[in-house]
From TrEMBL:
It comes from the Bacteria. This is Octanoyltransferase LipM. Keywords: Acyltransferase, Transferase. The keyword Lipoprotein does not apply. GO terms for molecular function: lipoyl(octanoyl) transferase activity. InterPro entries: aa-tRNA-synth_II/BPL/LPL (IPR045864), BPL_LPL_catalytic (IPR004143), DUF116 (IPR002829), Octanoyltrans_LipM/LipL (IPR050664). It is an enzyme of class 2 (transferase). Residues 32-227 form the BPL/LPL catalytic domain. PROSITE patterns: BPL_LPL_CATALYTIC (PS51733).
């Protein structure tokens, strides 16, 4: 006899009600007190849904969302931040108990099975979709749907969306801290082409009941089940309590970490197949780890594996072997798996954060470390070498400077760039003013071809976070020094900065730059 799953259609709900329902269903499924479930839902207002391991301030333009009444929330599953367009998005989820799904290979197989069920259902609508592991449903190379998952005990939650109509890309770009500077000529249509919808593909907006029925049939085929419609088997009081929990600031902003007193903060970002940022807090006297924060757009099974790692590392010395052993033990004990991320990647990412202690030997003060970033492996190239460039952002020049939008500096002393050029002369560096993002990319590639082994540059942290993958792909090691004051990211003018038309002036951390150049010369 086929297993019977229940189908629940929640209709419209607030994002907090939806996340509270996810939480209660997953907990109930882990205790095996509810049947495996397919649930459909729609949120009653535009909102932002953070991935479980993300930091709101890194992913969202909080001031824009506040000013425009866009609620920010956090779901149980990992993955990317979602802008939920009320008029265009159909939500779905599956909650199921899988006693025998334990190993990484089994977890990946279940992930692929969910993707296959979605593809099977959408093909019944006449759509030639395909599943792009681990999370995307594509039609003609464009995203039409997406999903992510997590696990509590042996209960798995997979949830995602299908676009029924074209989403409001203009609002998405303003609400999320997406690198709009990657767009050419401010052409939002180029970003819009990354997405498609059922309406685009079918020529009309289909009945959502038809879509839901097709998706249910897809799960029935792939999982060999039958279904029965049901109401949500959770009491209102229980759901209200869960709703209060997930609407509280402690839940929405829970990835924020306070700096322990008398500690170094060491940060590093991994960018190759997913995005991970680690912050390691190290006691200055005892040189032991006092805190760890791991954030990113990854998906983890079970959900609490990251908290286990963070807690397990406290009290350890900053020794890679100790860190590796602890992380491996956490993964083994929790029977954990993180899609696209091995325990070794977590170890290397944390280890590279600890490596930043070397900046203390190169002239930096303890409070400087957070404003310095290593690009690639700088240790083999920090000294020697015939050619080291100093890359300076044009936005540090005076707004009315005749050199603002051209290469060079008049050495008039009216802005920090003049002093930076003098420092370059003093330490034998080639100063280069970076006028826009395209020039930066071209400059780094040309420097690498010319045999340059290391560059020194200045940029804001937000720019680095959004371009870390680009820096790594180019493959030229370097050291980046953060900048002061409001940048284009804080002011929402990335497109202007990309083209070289940002109309504000930033300030270089001149003293830190001087100490660094003295230390590595």
């Amino acid at each position: 006899m086929k297993q019977v799953w229940q189908v629940i259609d929640s209709g419209y709900e607030t994002c907090f009600q939806g996340i509270a329902t996810d939480k209660t269903l997953l907990a109930a499924c882990s205790r095996q007190v509810v049947a495996d479930t397919i649930r459909f839902f729609q949120y009653d207002a535009d909102c932002i849904i953070l991935g479980y391991y993300q930091k709101a301030e890194q992913e969202v333009r909080l001031s824009f969302c506040k000013d425009n009444g866009i609620t920010v929330s956090r779901r149980l599953t990992g993955g990317k931040t979602i802008y939920w367009d009320r008029e265009a998005t159909l939500g779905w989820e599956v909650v199921l108990y899988q006693q025998d799904v334990v190993t990484p290979r089994q977890i990946e197989a279940l992930q692929r099975k969910i993707g296959a069920a979605l593809v099977s259902g959408l093909k019944m609508l006449g759509l030639n979709v395909r599943y792009q592991y681990p999370s995307t449903i594509e039609l003609a190379g464009c995203e039409i749907g997406w999903f992510c998952g997590t696990r509590t005990g042996q209960a798995f939650l997979y949830q995602g969306y299908i676009y029924s109509k074209d989403i409001d890309v203009s609002t998405l770009l303003r609400a999320l801290r997406i690198p709009r500077e990657k767009l050419q000529n401010k052409d939002i249509n180029k970003y819009r082409k990354k997405f498609t919808s059922l309406a685009d593909a079918l020529g009309e907006v289909p009945s959502l009941n038809t879509v839901k029925s097709a998706m249910i049939l897809g799960f029935c085929q792939v999982f060999d089940i039958s279904t029965v419609s049901n109401h949500l088997p959770i009491s209102k009081d229980y759901l209200d309590t869960a709703c209060q929990e997930v609407a509280a600031p402690q839940w929405v902003f829970n990835r924020a970490t306070a700096l322990p007193s008398n500690s170094y903060q060491l940060r590093n970002t991994y960018t190759k197949r997913t995005f991970i940022t680690v912050s390691v807090f190290l006691d200055r006297k005892q040189r032991c780890i006092t805190g760890v924060s791991i954030t990113g757009d990854f998906a983890a099974y079970p959900a609490n594996i990251i908290e286990k790692i963070e807690a397990g590392l406290i009290g350890l010395p900053p020794d890679v072997a100790c860190i590796s052993q602890t992380i491996s033990t956490c993964f083994t004990n929790q029977q954990a798996h993180v899609l696209l991320v091995s325990p070794e990647i977590f170890t290397r990412t944390i280890g590279k954060a600890v490596d930043k202690l070397a900046f203390l030997q190169w002239g930096a003060k303890p409070e400087d470390i957070l404003d310095l970033t290593m690009v690639g492996n700088v240790f083999n190239h920090i000294s020697g070498g015939k050619h080291k460039p100093l890359l300076i952002p044009y936005c540090a020049k005076a707004v009315d400077c005749p050199y603002r939008y051209t290469e060079g500096c008049g050495r008039c002393g009216r802005c920090d760039v003049s002093e930076a050029y003098s420092l370059a002369d003093q330490y034998g560096l080639e100063p280069i003013t970076i006028q826009n993002y395209e020039m930066l990319e071209e400059t780094l590639k040309n420097l690498k071809k010319r045999g340059c082994k290391l560059f020194i540059g200045t940029c804001c942290e937000s720019f680095w976070n959004k371009h870390a993958r680009d820096f790594e792909q180019i493959g030229l090691p370097g050291i980046l020094v953060n900048v002061d004051d409001s940048t284009c990211y804080e002011l929402g003018q990335e497109q202007e900065a990309y083209q070289g038309h940002f109309a504000n002036q930033t300030k270089l951390k001149k003293q830190l730059l001087c100490r660094l150049l003295e230390g590595i010369s």
